[in-house]
Design brief:
Distance between the termini: 24 Å
Strand content: 15-25%
Number of strands: 7
Number of helices: 5
Structural class: alpha/beta
Shape: globular
Helix content: 25-40%
């Protein structure tokens, strides 16, 4: 079965990403086509990238990097829950992504953004990053507006249409994730011959 991480993409105090990620997880948990787990980058205490070698070499020296790599390696696909800060994703999420390379490769990603314009600019930046780390970004995404999906810009109250948007994104994510899982398995089997 496909194993999907729902990544809380900020460490900021008072962040909204955690409640959004748990909402996405609640919707995802009703599905039977994959297993889903919320992963909080804050739990890994990643400082600004402190590895001497490029992540593409896979030679991690720091214990926090090794723990982060071991966790991410267990997943076949990712849902990135991202705020929009200054027309981009959070520095903490970009830093967490930059720590690794092979652990991301040949997997799929979907996005749930939130902000003044639904986090769409943050998601666009993430799509560019995904291409470089060999992650297939699905087209469907969830855009949560601070104006309409958060009461008084703080209490999360998503519009009723947003659950359908989550499921549409997950439909694409699971399809791509399964295809890439099959591809990784075939490549691994060929390498073992």
């Amino acid at each position: 079965m496909l194993n999907v991480a729902i990544i809380i993409g900020t460490t900021r105090p008072g962040r909204k990403a955690e409640v959004v990620a748990r909402w996405v997880h609640g919707i995802a948990a009703e599905r039977s086509d994959a297993s889903f787990e919320v992963v909080d980058i804050a739990d890994f205490d990643l400082p600004l990238l402190d590895e001497a070698l490029p992540p593409s070499m896979g030679q991690y020296a720091q214990p926090h990097t090794k723990a982060w790599a071991a966790k991410i390696a267990t997943f076949d696909a990712f849902v990135f829950v991202t705020p929009e800060y200054n027309h981009s994703t959070s520095g903490a999420l970009k830093n967490a992504i930059d720590y690794l390379f092979r652990e991301w490769n040949d997997k799929a990603a979907g996005f749930v953004g939130y902000g003044g314009v639904g986090g769409t600019r943050a998601v666009e930046h993430l799509r560019l990053i995904m291409g470089e780390i060999k992650v297939a970004a699905v087209r469907a995404q969830v855009a949560l507006s601070l104006f309409t999906d958060f009461e008084n810009f703080s209490t999360f109250k998503p519009g009723p249409h947003q659950a359908a948007a989550v499921n549409a994104m997950l439909d694409d994510l699971v399809a791509w994730g399964q295809a890439l899982q099959t591809m990784r398995r075939q490549v691994s089997e060929r390498g073992a011959l």
